[in-house]
Write a structure and sequence with these properties.
Layout: H1 30-56, H2 61-82
Helix pairs in contact: 1-2
Length: 94
């Protein structure tokens, strides 16, 4: 029954491919954390700029969309940097 099962994965549990599961959140080394924090601030600034442009005039919508897109991309990059960068699980699964 579902109530008898543990709430989360057991420590040392493996996935269907035999790999150990990584922790839910891993932080990267200090240089990546600093870059991630900078990118997060950049994303915040771009997002606030996008909102401010729309408050000034609806005619500035194209510029606001560009700034908003930049904010989304900067936030995405910040999340990747803060969590330690990209990791690929390409090898060893023959």
């Amino acid at each position: 029954m579902a109530a008898d099962l543990p709430a989360g994965p057991a420590a040392g549990a493996t996935d269907t491919h035999g790999h150990e599961r990584e922790p839910w959140l891993t932080l990267g080394p200090a240089p990546l954390l600093w870059r991630g924090a900078g990118l997060a601030l950049l994303g915040l600034g771009l997002g606030l700029g996008a909102v401010q442009l729309l408050r000034w005039s609806v005619l500035l919508l194209p510029a606001s969309l560009v700034l908003g897109g930049g904010a989304v991309l900067a936030a995405w990059a910040a999340a990747i940097h803060i969590t330690g960068g990209e990791r690929f699980d390409d090898g060893g699964c023959d």
